[in-house]
Amino acid sequence: MARKTSGRIFLSFHWAARLVVFLCVLVCSAPICAAPVAAAGRVECSAIQSKVLRQAVRYCALLPPSYDAEKARRYPVLYYLHGLGDNEQSLLNLGGWNLVENLREKGRIGEFLILAPDGGRSFYVNARDGKLRYEDFFIREFVPAMEAKYRVRAGRAARGITGVSMGGYGALRLAFQYPQMFGAASSHMGALIKQIPAALTDARELGRGLSFLGEVFGRPFDRAFWDRNSPFTLAREARSLAGLKIYFDCGRDDGYGFDAGTQALHELLKSRGIAHEFHMYPGGHDWSYVTEHMSASMEFHSRAFGLRAAAIKDHDVLECVEIEPVHGSNVMTAKEKALKVIENLPEDVSFDDILEELYVQEKIERGLEDVEAGRLISHEEAKKRLARWLEK
After folding, report:
1. Residue 238 has what pLDDT?
2. How far is CA 11 from CA 4, 8, 99, 312, 326, in A?
3. With a threshold of 0.85, does the pTM exceed it?
């Protein structure tokens, strides 16, 4: 078993295998049953006619596996905002939906809807010239329409928003602007710029420096308008972001310099005492960076929805897999002990937290301490090895 000591872990591979079998069995080794086949979710794409935008806006709804079968059940909802150059199908086309399904199958997230509208090149704001009022569309039309059409739980705690690049900017900005609507917000490599250099707002430099912003923020670029809509301004001036759960990350080598903005937002929130989770990782500004870290935001939102261990507690594996006692015939089975551990955990822990707690429980590792004495590995290495077990 594993014991956490000064940020490091003692790990028994023998017990890692047993716990992985009970938690996430991919191939049931016990002769009494076959491994359950995880149900798949489904996707439907359609359009909503917007009076605000005076046009139809396409969207995709990513529905969890039980949505069609459990007609009386309501679900939390996560709004996904795509990046510049993408559309409402970006999660489907770029592999994000497969990643979500995989996380569900492994019990790392619970069931919630994901709704992804087409944001064009809007940056999810009302444009400077007043012609494209995307923010008004999203808040006044899209969210109410989607939550009337789909079985969504009522209330802020059951509503999250996330995005990538332009969508990361939009997710944080909308959550900071409307904290009464969203319980959690996240961003990957969000288009965060603390302060645009004056030289880049000159019309002659616009094409070279700020062309990716398009005409949303004015042509010529309106610096004051940009500042009013900035997540930095909203975070500084917001009366209260209390209760809003916040996650954001970025690659250290972001080609647009959004790493500097990400770091600056972290420092601003920290100075204001606003709780948040923030990471800077190796990587640039591309979809490979997103796929490497999207699982973190999905798990973050699952926890924010209060879904952290439901998929594990209810997993059919627990009904069909028996594991031999840890130490002698009078000791509880690992299955029974692990269930007891999970049931006693707080509501706001992640799947990884559950695994770690199973590792360090003295009741589970009884009689194994001496065997593992001296075998010290890092927590990160323990998780890597666990991941390899899960793939077998």
Report:
1. 84
2. 9, 10, 28, 22, 15
3. no
